[in-house]
Write a structure and sequence with these properties.
Blueprint: E1 2-3, H1 6-14, H2 24-37, E2 42-43, H3 48-81, H4 92-101, H5 106-144, H6 156-166, H7 175-182, E3 187-188, E4 197-198, H8 205-219, H9 224-234, H10 239-264
Antiparallel strand pairs: 1-2, 3-4
Helix pairs in contact: 1-2, 3-5, 3-6, 4-5, 5-6, 6-8, 7-10, 8-10, 9-10
Amino acid sequence: MVDVPAKLSARVRVFATGQGRKTDDTDAHSIALVGVRMRGLRAVVDDEQLELLRLLVDRRRRLGEEHTRMVCQLHQLLLELIPGGAKRDLSAAQARKLLAGARPRGVVGKTRKQHAMELVVDLERIYQCKKAANQELIELIKSTGTGLLDLHGIGPSGAARLLVEVGDITRFPDRGHFASWTGTAPIDASSGDRVRHRLSRGGNRQINVVLHIMATVQLRNRTEGRAYYDRKIAAGKSSNEAMRCLKRRLSDIVYRTMLNDLVANKATGPGGHRGASLQSSAAGSHPHTGSSDKSLPGPVKAKPRTRMPRAS
């Protein structure tokens, strides 16, 4: 059994006779054609550990979505019970304290307070479930021997999502392919003598969110990522361009870390794989191309490093 990418089956379906509509029959036929005729497709491997990790991380995501929904409902009720409402980052304990001081008059106000108290109880339950789910994820992730949790800005949910979605890191020939898959590789939008790159809207959006959260966390603290971002701003890039460069560099570090995990676990990878170079070097033939805009080959090291490179 092989994994057929959706783009390949879509290209085959375009050349099919008939109306060209996407139906179950035409989908199955195009997938079968790709699976039989195309070479180099990745074999589907039943990994029980990754499947368990997928179940846990999906459950953790649903708990987070439920928590966000309840907090939004609680904010709406508090806004009607307390003048000015409550602060944005509201915990269940803080909401309970605010409700204890609220003295609504009338049946409508008392009903609002009762519903708000029920939401507080549900939030406390969700919080305990999230705490237990995080602990479960951490224990399972540590059993894989990955170093993703050591990277600043990646929590248990992000590390689990990376392991689940990436699967076998050796399916990416180099960090440039990995960045294209994560949607962090810039798209060349140059015209004439004007050289510019724009944000890619493709790639795996779940992993792109993980890298965006990682970049945001690093920007909120005094980290190498923050220093790298400030250097890009000082070089004349806009905030969006600097964020794109940072996410591209973090994608390289994640790729390098996952390759290092293979080395540490004595796994056999394909020969000639090149990881993300953490050292600055010539960006390429174009003088205005930054080091984050082009893949730079570098050797795989056994020890993961999260230190950001100095700008060239």
